[in-house]
Write a structure and sequence with these properties.
- Strands 1-14-15-16-17-18-19-20-21-22-23-24-25 form a 13-stranded antiparallel β-sheet.
- A hairpin with a 2-residue loop joins strand 15 and strand 16.
- The protein starts with a strand and ends with a strand.
- It has one domain.
- The chain contains 3 helices and 25 strands.
- 38% of the residues are buried.
- The protein is elongated.
- The chain has 312 residues and is mainly β.
């Protein structure tokens, strides 16, 4: 495994990646021992024609697979298949593809997924609830059980240990990019964030498999693996406690965390599944092409293809 070392050269016009003995030295393109961190950031931002939320251009100057640091102290890397990985100074992560987005907070407690098949927002801090939106259906996994409804119906239903009943509930709106809230939660900024990002970059590493089919990056405690041909991505956080799988060809996302599992894939009968493991009663929400179902322990209910309530 190689490490990122400093260099006296700082070149923002790099157009190709030089590979020697299946290794890369990323640090030499972005760090300089003779130039202060602030001046490096200033030199980088002066060459940017426009700014976005992270103070960098939409098409980063860095080559594919080469990490760089924005003026907000975000460690960013663009991979094959137009996949972008952002890591802030608090080690929250955000993975963006052309049509989906995943964010995990610094603690791993809050998770957000935006996908054409649905949207999921888990906020264990401070509300301990998980909000789901799939087409015309809404659901919420909370301490009472699983509540769900349809935009075409006036009633809200609750499934708990005693069965299914009507209730009242307030559902969170998910018609905006809530992944930014998760990514920036308790985020650091300013000079400290930039120094922290440079420190994470220096301690990072890169490896390639012997046959060249897989590439590995080790940044800020994360292990990032991407297949060079298919573009399939696997990101591991917190020593394997949180794992993100993304398949650009299949347009699928899978997130596995200690308190939540999310799967959005077109191959399965249920194109969206949210499972909240529990020692006694597992909570589950499944959305298919002609149904929407919720489960709490052994109790099940949902809507059929005609959007009629069914007890399963």
């Amino acid at each position: 495994m190689t490490t990122y070392t400093t260099s006296t050269d700082f070149n923002t016009n790099t157009t190709e990646v030089v590979v020697e003995n299946e290794s890369k030295d990323f640090g030499q393109e972005f760090l300089s021992q003779s130039v202060a961190v602030n001046s490096i950031v200033n030199n980088l931002t002066q060459s940017l024609p426009s700014k976005t939320g992270y103070c960098c251009v939409e098409q980063p100057i860095a080559t594919i697979g080469q990490p760089f640091i924005t003026c907000d102290g975000v460690l960013t890397m663009v991979l094959n298949k137009d996949i972008r990985v952002d890591i802030n100074a608090s080690h929250a992560i955000c993975v963006t593809t052309p049509n989906s987005k995943v964010a995990v907070s610094y603690s791993g407690q809050n998770i957000g997924v935006i996908h054409p098949f649905g949207r999921v927002y888990q906020e264990l801090i401070p509300f301990n609830s998980c909000h789901i939106e799939s087409g015309i259906h809404l659901a919420k996994i909370g301490s009472r059980g699983v509540t769900f409804t349809s935009l075409y119906r006036s009633l809200i239903y609750l499934v708990d240990t005693s069965g299914c009943k009507t209730t009242t509930e307030r559902f969170r709106k998910l018609n905006y990019d809530f992944t930014n809230e998760i990514f920036n939660m308790n985020g650091l900024n300013g000079d400290y964030a930039r120094h922290k990002a440079f420190s994470d970059l220096l301690r990072g590493g890169y490896e390639m498999s012997k046959d060249g089919s897989d590439q590995f990056w080790f940044l800020a405690g994360l292990r990032i693996r991407q297949n060079s041909i298919s573009g399939d991505l696997m990101l591991t956080k917190s020593y394997g406690k949180t794992v993100i799988h993304i398949s650009p060809e299949m347009n699928s996302i899978k997130v596995s965390a200690p308190n939540l599992r999310i799967a959005a894939t077109p191959k399965s009968e249920a194109y969206l599944q949210i499972i909240k493991p529990h020692s006694r009663d597992e909570q589950r929400v499944s959305a298919g092409y002609d149904y929407f179902r919720v489960k709490y322990g052994s109790q099940k209910a949902g809507f059929d293809g005609r959007d009629q309530l069914v007890l399963i």
